[in-house]
Task: inverse folding
């Protein structure tokens, strides 16, 4: 037991002092509220039995109603369980904050806009913008004339390309058919 205390930098009666406890976790002075915040799952295993007991009492989670011997392992398990609960609570709060942020900004009355409301609002905005663009096009009479002219030109271009393609395909088909017929005649004779 003295080897363990020596490795932790504690010996004899100094093991239970608040000052040594504070120095062990990197504080200048013992403060129960600060100690409660500085114990994490990465440093909880370095605490002594006294330090665990003091930390649990500071949190109001000491096992007063526990029947049986209280030892280091029991207190360590309890502290680890509390740290796990704290971590889970922090994670839930972060997730809730991210979900609120994801859903969108708050409305003027302080309520959060739901996803359905946000999508409906965006749809109405897009529809209003499309209607406005349509009105602007209708106001300009030249717009429709230009579009009709461009469409006619595009149809003529497509028609020319189709004719060229059909002419080219028809020539290839005749050549392929003639070649196959000659091959069959030679094979039979």
Result:
């Amino acid at each position: 037991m003295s080897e363990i205390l020596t490795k932790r930098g504690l010996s004899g009666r100094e093991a239970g002092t608040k000052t040594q406890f504070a120095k062990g976790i990197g504080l200048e002075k013992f403060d129960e509220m600060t100690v409660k915040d500085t114990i994490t799952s990465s440093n909880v295993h370095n605490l002594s039995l006294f330090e665990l007991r003091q930390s649990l009492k500071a949190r109001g989670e000491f096992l007063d109603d526990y029947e049986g011997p209280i030892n280091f392992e029991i207190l360590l398990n309890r502290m680890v369980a509390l740290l796990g609960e704290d971590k889970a609570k922090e994670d839930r709060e972060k997730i809730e904050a991210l979900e609120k942020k994801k859903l969108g900004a708050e409305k003027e009355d302080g309520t959060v806009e739901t996803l359905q409301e946000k999508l409906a609002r965006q749809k109405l905005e897009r529809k209003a913008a499309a209607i406005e663009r349509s009105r602007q096009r209708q106001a300009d009479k030249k717009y429709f004339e230009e579009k009709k002219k461009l469409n006619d030109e595009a149809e003529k271009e497509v028609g020319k390309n189709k004719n060229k393609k059909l002419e080219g395909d028809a020539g290839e088909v005749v050549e392929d058919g003639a070649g196959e017929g000659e091959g069959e005649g030679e094979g039979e004779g």
Notes: Residues 77 and 126 are 57 Å apart (CA to CA).
